[in-house]
Amino acid sequence: MKISFLIPFVPRRPAQALPFAGLAQWTGTDRVWQGQGLLTEGHSMFSHFAGAGFGLDTGFGVSLMPFQHPYEAALRARSLALTTGRSVVAGFGPGGRQLQEALLGSAYRSPLTAAREYLSIVRDLLAGRIAELDGDYFTVRAQLEPVPTPAIETGLGVLRPKMARVAGEVADCAITWLTPAQYLTDTIVPALHDGARAAGRDAAPRLVSIVPVALQMPKRDPRAVALASNRAHLSLPHYQDMLRGAGLHISGDPEKDVDQLIEHGAFVHGDLDTITDRILQLHKAGVDEIVLNLSGVNGTEGPQASARELATLIGHLTQEIAA
Fold first, then answer.
1. Are 246 and 179 in contact (CB under 8 A)?
2. At 268, is the secondary structure helix, strand, or coil?
3. How many CB atoms are closer than 10 A to CB 321?
4. What pLDDT, in 10s, does the model give residues 164-210?
5. Which of 127, 141, 179, 262 is most buried as measured by Cβ atoms within 10 A of its Cβ?
């Protein structure tokens, strides 16, 4: 199992995140990830890392489809791989209905179809093929100039089984967020394999889980940390539906529902041994790469606290996995 981490904030200037680039290089982290930025976006930050001398594999979990055409998405992913000389996971997701309406004029009638078309176009372009599609949402006949690049994987954000089946059909990796281990075992992993079989693929895509986490600390309120990381997610209908499907009692009130995240391990909290056990449960559920997300610690205690905690967690987890 690979151990990676999410940059726990969106910087105003890329240089603000350089300590985390150093942390990744010092700890031997597998990959550095960033989500969709609304202040600045991650491609600029990761290019800045390379210019500052940090050679890091990078990932996006996830860029939201309404913000960019699939041709632009493929071009930006390849540009980053060429700029950094390192591998890239270009993860995408349709976003929520409200976002789609705000940017596109109307929501996708079928987010599943939109995601299938988008990923198919991006994969063809990154493979050097001519992407030809007259779809429900995207019409394209185009090609990127073929050029050797470091490896670029296409990823799809997955919360529920139908989207997991689409990932099984067209993605190189499936990317989850806030998904408890048992839900992955019972629901997501079987759907990934179903989609891969339906598409005639030899294997299902690898599974990446972005895991909000915080160590138990004196005077630290885990509820406050979990809310700082996930209040917005608890307010979104598609996350609420996924969590209910995982057996959590979700009311729609984040102040009440945060306790369910902690109790069911969607937000991982405890001492080092407890966190290690939770992470190993995710690995047993089929997760190939864990992305540690300390945005809650960063939001409540600042970047220095989140960097120190990341160093502790990565060191301990690396030792335990090696053992």
1. yes
2. strand
3. 15
4. 999 999 999 999 999 999 999 999 999 999 999 999 999 999 999 99
5. 179
